[in-house]
Specification:
This protein is an alpha+beta fold. 24% of the residues lie in helices and 21% in strands. It has helices at 27-38, 110-129, and strands spanning 2-3, 21-26, 48-51, 56-61, 75-77, 95-99, 106-107. The strands form 2 sheets. Strands 5-2-4-3-6 form a 5-stranded antiparallel beta sheet. It has a two-stranded parallel ribbon with strand order 1-7.
Length: 131
């Protein structure tokens, strides 16, 4: 796996990742963010997990992301390079791939994900206020 357009100086672009951190968000916001990211450049979204209950999505991001992750309503789990590998089977019990590694080979850039999650939250607030 490689990272793309990452602004973290500790992980140069194109450097192989030794595992991934995982950003977990509520499913509604995560699905909106996936749509936003897929409308961008082809490599804007990396592999994404969903839980069996459909309550959350997990975006694989470059290792080290958790140290600076501060997006309200989400969590970022640090893996210290021991995180999910991109085997065909989901790395977490009770989960499955929404975007499997074969379709999304790059970890999602945390800065791009942060923007997409913010845009998704604004869209959800706007939609909910119209009810």
């Amino acid at each position: 796996m490689e990272t793309s357009r990452i602004s973290d100086p500790r992980t140069p672009p194109g450097a192989p990742a030794a595992g991934c951190d995982v950003v977990t968000v509520p499913a509604r916001q995560g699905l909106e963010a996936v749509d936003i990211l897929r409308r961008g450049p082809a490599d804007a979204v990396g592999p994404v997990l969903h839980d069996d209950g459909g309550d959350t999505l997990g975006f694989l991001v470059p290792p080290g992301t958790a140290a600076a992750w501060d997006v309200p309503g989400s969590t970022c789990t640090r893996t210290d390079g021991r995180g999910p590998d991109l085997a065909p089977e989901p790395p977490v019990d009770g989960s499955d791939w929404l975007l499997p590694p074969g379709e999304a080979d790059l970890a999602t850039d945390p800065a791009v994900l942060r923007e997409a999650l913010g845009e998704a939250a604004r869209m959800i607030r706007a939609a909910d206020s119209c009810r």
